[in-house]
Amino acid sequence: MAGLYDAALYRFDQPVPSFWEAVSGGGEARALRPLAGDVETEVAVIGGGYTGLSAALHLVRDHGLSCAVLEAGHIGWGASGRNGGIVGLNCTKRTIRGLEETYGEAETRAFLNSQVEAVDLVAGLIAEHGIAAEAVGDAEFGVSHDRKGFEALTQLCDGYGKYGIGATLYTQASFAREFYDAREQHGALKVHCGFAINPLRLVQGLAHAAAAAGARLFPRSAVLEWRREAGGHMLVTRTGTVRAKRVIVAVNGFLDEGLHFGLAGRFLPVISNILVTEPLSPDLRAAHNWRTLCPMWSTRTLLFYYRMLPDGRFLFGARGDTSGRAEDGARMRGWMERRLAEVFPHWAGVKTEHFWRGLICMTRNRVPALGLLDGDESVSFAMGYHGNGVNSAVWAGRALARALALGKDGWAAIPAIYRGGAPRFPFPELRRLYLAGAFLYYRATDR
């Protein structure tokens, strides 16, 4: 495995010690068997997360194409099964004004519309397939950590309004009355498009739906070798092979860059860390006037994301580590516990019962990438959701399925902001150093 971080982050044979695994691990998806022997299919998907499973479901169900999914861990091992469960907009690190300057208003509108469509798609799949995803909330909030952050939220509100996306600004006082009161709360933006889920339940439900439609799912089947052959591709695992006419790469932050030369140096995996507390009593929640199950994110550049879970536990996430080593993860946990107590001082004595890490995926141009690998019409990919992949990845999987089935018309239907390969990073072997420098700068200035 040619990963950017310490091997501790790539132990595909070990379950993640997440809260989601503790309450939702096992089940039908965990009972699936690895690939055994030789398989032929029209489309092979590398990666059994939201993107890959959505692609498989829509390829088989909507377009009648056979499909086999190869996942290195168990279904739900990767980011799809361990994220914060936030379904919302903004899978880019560009501002709306920045998107307009680069791509124009028409493509910016198409991109934002696709994000709203992606939220609706997830809600629709949950309802259609009876997925017990524990959906709660009816919006997402951006919370300003200082006055400058509120100015940024005001600009975002104006941008959303321009493109018909409902959003409401709250002053510090009104937000404190209606949602919660704490330090680093200087007003907020409510985006009327979003909700929160149990992410592992969603990926398990998508796996069930894809398998029921006829897709073949093979967990614990990492691709060790990829060969181009006459008429297609040969993917080799430890226990079998898959011959396919076409391949979809849908691995996001856990990409093995040695798998294909066309993928190397194009993506930046970033470690995201999450802790979950013990259940908070009604009195503790009332101490900060907490009144919502909607998910939240802060305006810090090194953002916090957080939400109250249905059982009263508090989920708190942050970026920061650049090594992936276990000891650095322990230090990150301690730092997050201290920051949680600083932001929510009435919860300073609350115990954290779960802590885990995973990888989000970013691109050099700070937008997602959906395209053909080096112009090869038989190899497509979708990656780079910038920490907002729950709905974006599900949408991207469906978009790839349509593109493979419909050809040029399918690709043309994807907004231009997504289309094409992510540009390579200069001196890609230095990506971790770039990231470490950025984190040092942001921690010094993000006050």
From TrEMBL:
SUPFAM superfamilies in the cross-refs: FAD/NAD(P)-binding domain (SSF51905)
Keywords tagged on the record: Oxidoreductase
Stretches assigned to the FAD dependent oxidoreductase domain: 43-402
GO cellular component: cytoplasm
Pfam families: DAO
Claim: Oxidoreductase is one of the keywords in the record: yes
GO molecular function: oxidoreductase activity
Record InterPro entries: FAD-dep_OxRdtase, FAD/NAD-bd_sf
Protein name, as recorded: FAD-binding oxidoreductase
Top-level taxonomy: Bacteria, Pseudomonadati, Pseudomonadota, Alphaproteobacteria, Futianiales
